[in-house]
Amino acid sequence: MIDKKSKKTPPFEVAMQRLEAIVHTLEAGDIPLERLVKTYEEGLVYQKICQAHLERADFSLKRLNDDGTMTEVSEQEKNGKQCDTD
Questions:
Q1: Where are the beta strands (DSSP E) in the chain?
Q2: What is the residue range of 68's domain?
Q3: Nearest partner of 63 among 81, 51, 84, 77, judged by Cα
């Protein structure tokens, strides 16, 4: 659970592990409705945390060139579209 007092966001790996545990609990389907709703809401919080981490990582993607220099990855490449540079 997120520490509400310190309001510290957990690292991506911790948030993802918790989200996976929540999904497993929800998929099992053997919990009372009230707890199911609270667990689902907690899952949404962790999903948003993971999404925020991924968006921050996306902005900082770089590519190592053959000559050893680093360049920003283009928006086309970030979206999975290869661009021809030859």
A1: 62-64, 70-72
A2: 12-78
A3: 77
Does 28 reside within a domain?
yes
Return the structure tokens found at 76. 């086309």
Tell me what pLDDT residue 6 has: 57
Q: Count CB atoms within 10 A of the CB of residue 15.
A: 21
The structural domain count of the chain equals: 1
Give a yes or no: residue 86 inside a domain.
no
Q: What is the pLDDT along the chain (86 residues), one digit of tens a residue?
A: 555 555 789 999 999 999 999 999 999 989 999 999 999 999 999 999 999 999 887 766 676 677 877 777 666 665 665 554 54
How many C-beta atoms surround the C-beta of residue 14 within 10 A? Answer: 14
> Which amino acid does the sequence have at 40?
Y
Two tokens at 83?
């661009």
